[in-house]
Amino acid sequence: GHSKMKCCCLSPMSSLLRTLAGCLRACAAAAEQAFRCLAKIAACADRCADDIDSKLQTRLGDMEFDWNAAGVPFPNQTSTDESYSHVWTEPLQLHVNLLSGTELATVQAKSTWSGREMKDALLPFLPKATVAATINFGTLTWEDSLMASELGLTDEAELHVILQACEIQVTAASVSAVNGFYTTSEEQMNGASSYTNEAGTLLFRYHFPNGVHYWYFSRPGNLTKSLGDYYRVKSEGLYPPLDGWAPDKCPLGFGCAPSIKMLV
Q1: Are residues 86 and 66 in contact, defined by beta-carbon separation less than 8 angstroms?
Q2: Can you give the pTM of this predicted structure?
Q3: How many other CB atoms are there within 10 angstroms of residue 218's CB atom?
């Protein structure tokens, strides 16, 4: 009787294991078939790429192609537009003029410079309390994140700059949106001027119900809530403090606090 009971107990387990083994074999077979299919697709893609390269080489010979700032490819050797070139001269000598045509500066730049780096390089040449708001190359705008090479700048290229008056320069903040140049906005807040930078970040004075005042860096929105705050500092002054800033109780703030320089 004991032997029969043991056999009856093991029978369902053996059946389950055999079913599992069958499922695994089926999965392995399907995986092997899928792998073979993917290998065929990869081989086909390689053949197509080789065919395209061969046809392009036949039609275009040794011509090199580049992309201009508008995303349009052109052959460098036959391009009639001197604004674009595949060969970069280091450093690039860039001539910067005001919109009036008055020459502002000649800057030795690199093809890896961003628009933001170019604006920083222009600071020593600008009138007091002004910044380069926009830099144009022909009909194109040199965006802060765009490199000179991506814009298509070459040696001796001519740029035009639009200036903007500003009162405050902010640097060193870990939140990049806080850094930049601030101009006075039209709206006063709690008896003091408020300011905005090129990223839209606000610098303003806030009055708490208990009578205490703080200055804040925040993104636009409901300024009575802390959700958009980057940094703050307690101050009863009518102008933003130069130091003492911290991300304390500011959900979007972190790391290094901003450093403020008054330009006027």
Answers
A1: yes
A2: 0.53
A3: 24
